[in-house]
Design goal:
By secondary structure, the protein is an alpha+beta fold. The protein has 6 domains: 3-68, Arc Repressor Mutant, subunit A (Orthogonal Bundle); 71-136, Nucleic acid-binding proteins (OB fold (Dihydrolipoamide Acetyltransferase, E2P), Beta Barrel); 141-215, OB fold (Dihydrolipoamide Acetyltransferase, E2P), CATH 2.40.50; 235-477 and 563-620, no CATH class; 484-540, no CATH class; 629-742, OB fold (Dihydrolipoamide Acetyltransferase, E2P) (Beta Barrel). A hairpin with a 5-residue loop joins β30 (679-682) and β31 (688-690). α1 packs across α3 and α15 packs antiparallel against α16 (589-596). The radius of gyration is 27 Å and the shape is globular.
Length: 785
């Protein structure tokens, strides 16, 4: 039973019996849960409900519904027009809150909301609520450009806030903090939040100066501060890291298998400096493949509870920001003793697997080891070898047979994944090239060759094998999960593709990865392919960490975890510790108890920090792309429509830069949004715009501060026409009339849908991408696995 479902059952029962209190044992007995850990799961669920103040504990230690704290707890998502939405359950619709009912909550605040209207349940009108309590403030500081002088008495100046969600607020600076000059970017504490008397005003004092606005790197630092990403290592953390030897000590070899004679190689991007995985493949006497995936034993150098560990947990993951990396661990670890550099001994955690020529796993073994990389290979070199480049093949002639075996094994593993329904999206990835001053000079599209795909296959295989091993052992463990899509979203998606002519026979209540794969295959090579891929992404849930083995829908895996990147992801570090612990302590109840209560918390915290990193990276990329386009205003580009909403359509250029064509700039007709077809349709001339449609556009405005680009159509007459009938009612419809839509709720639902699409595209089905990172100048990270 999933953790959220268990909480819902317990909460529902206690709410239905509000005058009674029950012991945890009574509740566990009443649920009749299977397994030895049933009572522990109930206690964990009750503890979570108590933290959320949904239940309370009486003097006898019994649990009771907390009627004084009625309502749901969630995160407030603000709109600049004053209203907002509250996300409180990933399986439920967000709650709309009108401006009068927000209690002046700010973006990201944790709030308690009372439901005023449950909505129609059909998706056309969602629930509406009222904020009754602001439980925790998401922001205690603000970042922006200091402007000296103020029209308000008692204030020395104000800060122009850089975060888009706070751009409508006035921030006044009091005396008492650091002294800043006009034009400096500063960090200020929030001493006074908005009040009913001053709903758009905050006050505070300056606590840190980042630099002047136009200085190199200050623009990215603003984003880092806005997302509250830890980026400076404390002194005790650096001291602990510096005390670590730079080579393997003799005593560290004890209890480890010596595999230094195996032909292990690392295969990474040219700029990579944190080499955390090495691989080897050979043909066995029985015709099967031996696959060895050997991962840097980072946990050996990061003791649990130490300053290093606490800082790594606080960061959760490394963050990759165009021309810099904010590493999870200090560089002498990530680029030094824990990097599997060529020709030196390193400590490793090894997953050795045996696969048949058909890609079936028939044997595996997990153990600690001492290894040595025999070659530091790059994707480029391995691709050249497999493409038949004679010079490169000659340079690595001793390794060429192994790379050819790797390709054969990869093909078998990829075919196996396809058979089980894994969904492969090949969306373009961009690398932003910057000069020494941090100014973007080019945007390059990344090519994914056979070597990149091989490493993906091998990392997937190792992650699945480790997850399977411990799930079958029935012990507490940490998993990477991607749950099946929700029924209502699946139904909408199926209706959408049926309207495009795709035959769908799948059951929305029991959808399988292969159902989505078949739909994707139907549209490959067709004009609608991109549109369908986008809609498919929107219908899916978000990948996350969990202590429950819920499987991974996107890659069609029953078992999945993150084992392969402990240098840059805290969950992988945790998985390594679990492997070592069970090896040492066995699989009994006493051994299981050590981590059981911690894993749900680690899963939740690391999932949140992963999303923080993704948002920071995305905002940085968007800002740098906008800066790259600043000198291109007036130029024309080929583009593709990648989002259609009531207020306009988003377009994507060939270099992945995105921008908006607002309906106010569609001057050839009055355009109406048709939700069933997700299209803008001209009421008079019947031109239609949908996702995936090619268009020619001109750039008319760039706003780097808000990462916004505006385009207009070059030739609107070239758009296809449709016989779809649109409503003749112009009330609430976005067209080229002055004023636009006055319906706050509907307009922002579309804005929110667009934001949700961006968030989902970064963390869902592409969870299978290879974990190959650069950790230095120009280092970039592929999409999350």
């Amino acid at each position: 039973m999933a953790e959220n479902n268990l909480q819902s059952q317990l909460y529902g029962f206690l709410k239905a019996n509000p005058s009674q209190a029950f012991s945890a044992q009574t509740l566990a007995d009443g649920l009749h849960l299977p397994g030895d850990n049933a009572f522990t799961k109930v206690v964990q669920a009750l503890a979570a409900l108590e933290r959320d103040e949904k239940v309370r504990v009486n003097d006898q230690g019994e649990f009771q519904y907390n009627a004084q704290k009625e309502g749901s707890i969630g995160e407030f998502r603000a709109n600049e027009r004053g209203f907002g939405f509250i996300r409180y359950d990933e399986n439920e619709d967000d709650i709309f809150v009108n401006p009068d009912n927000t209690m002046l909550a700010l973006q990201g605040d944790q709030v308690r909301v009372k439901i005023l209207n449950k909505g129609d349940g059909a998706g056309s009108r969602g629930p509406e609520g009222q904020v009754v309590e602001i439980m925790n403030r998401a922001r205690e500081q603000m970042v922006g450009e200091f402007k000296l002088g103020s029209e308000y008495a008692g204030y020395i100046g104000q800060i122009v806030l850089t975060d888009k969600k706070f751009s409508t607020y006035e921030f006044l600076v009091k005396e008492g903090g650091q002294t800043a000059s006009d034009g400096e970017v500063v960090v200020a504490t929030i001493d006074q939040y908005p009040t009913p008397e001053k709903p758009k005003q905050m006050t505070g004092t300056i606590v840190e100066k980042i630099g002047y606005k136009d200085e190199p790197g200050v623009d990215i630092l603003q984003i880092v501060y806005n997302h509250d990403v830890p980026h400076v290592f404390p002194k005790d953390v650096l001291e602990q890291a510096e005390a670590i030897p730079d080579h393997v000590l003799d005593e560290e070899r004890e209890g480890r298998e010596d595999i230094t004679d195996q032909p292990l190689v690392t295969i990474d991007a040219i700029e990579s400096k944190d080499l955390d995985d090495a691989v080897t493949v050979w043909r066995m006497d029985n015709g099967n493949f031996h696959l060895g995936v050997h991962i840097a034993d980072v946990s050996h150098y990061v003791p649990e509870g130490s300053p290093l560990d606490q800082e790594a947990y606080k960061r959760g993951t490394s963050v990759y920001l165009t021309d810099r990396v904010i590493p999870m661990l200090p560089r002498n670890i990530s680029n030094g003793i824990a990097s599997l550099n060529e020709g030196v001994e390193r400590l490793a955690m090894s997953a050795e697997m045996e696969f048949t020529p058909k890609g079936e796993l028939v044997n595996h073994r997990l153990h600690r080891s001492v290894m040595r990389s025999h070659a530091r290979m790059t994707y480029k070199a391995v691709n050249e070898i497999l493409d038949g480049d004679e010079e490169t093949r000659e340079n690595y002639r001793e390794l060429v047979p192994m790379f050819e075996d790797m390709q054969l094994l990869h093909n078998a593993l990829a075919e196996k994944r396809q058979e089980r329904g894994a969904i492969e999206f090949d969306a373009p990835e961009a690398k932003i090239i910057v000069d020494a001053q941090g100014k973007p000079t080019d945007i390059e599209l990344r090519e994914r060759g056979i070597s990149e795909r091989m490493i993906e296959s091998f990392m997937l295989a190792a992650n699945e094998t480790v997850a399977m091993h411990y799930d079958l052992a029935k012990v507490p463990f940490l998993y990477r999960v991607h749950e099946a899509p929700e029924k209502d979203r699946v139904e909408k998606f199926f209706d959408f593709v049926k309207a495009l002519g795709c035959p769908v026979k799948a059951d929305p209540e029991h959808v399988k990865p292969s159902d989505f794969q078949q739909i994707h295959s139907y549209f490959v090579g067709k004009p609608e392919e991109q549109m369908v891929s986008t809609m498919m992404l929107r219908s899916m849930q978000q990948a996350k960490y969990s202590d429950q083995p819920l499987g991974h829908f996107g890659i069609g895996a029953d078992y999945y975890t993150h084992f392969t990147s402990p240098i840059r992801r805290y969950p992988d570090l945790t998985v390594h510790r679990l492997i070592k612990w069970y090896e040492k302590a066995g699989l009994g109840e006493d051994a299981q108890a050590k981590y059981r209560d911690d894993l749900p918390v680690i899963a939740e915290d690391t999932s949140v920090r992963e999303r923080r990193a993704v948002d920071t990276e995305r905002d940085t990329d968007a800002m740098k792309k906008a800066e790259y386009m600043e000198d291109k205003v007036g130029q024309e580009f080929d583009a593709v429509v990648n989002g259609v909403l009531k207020f306009g359509m988003f377009v994507s250029l060939e270099n992945t830069v995105e921008g908006l064509i607002h309906t106010s700039n569609l001057t050839d007709d009055y355009y109406v949004y048709d939700e069933s077809h997700m299209a803008l349709i001209g009421r008079r001339f019947h031109h239609i715009y949908q996702i995936g449609q090619p268009v020619r556009v001109k750039l008319i405005r760039v706003d780097k501060e808000h990462s916004a680009l505006d385009f207009i159509l070059v030739d609107p007459e070239a758009a296809p026409k449709t016989d779809i009938k649109v409503a003749d009612d112009r009330r609430g419809a976005h067209g080229n009339q002055k004023g636009g839509n006055k319906d706050y709720k509907k307009n922002t639902q579309h804005n929110r849908a667009r934001q949700g699409q961006k968030h989902q595209n970064g963390a869902k089905p592409n969870d299978h991408r290879a974990p190959k990172r650069g950790q230095g100048q120009g280092g970039q990270r592929s999409q999350h696995k």
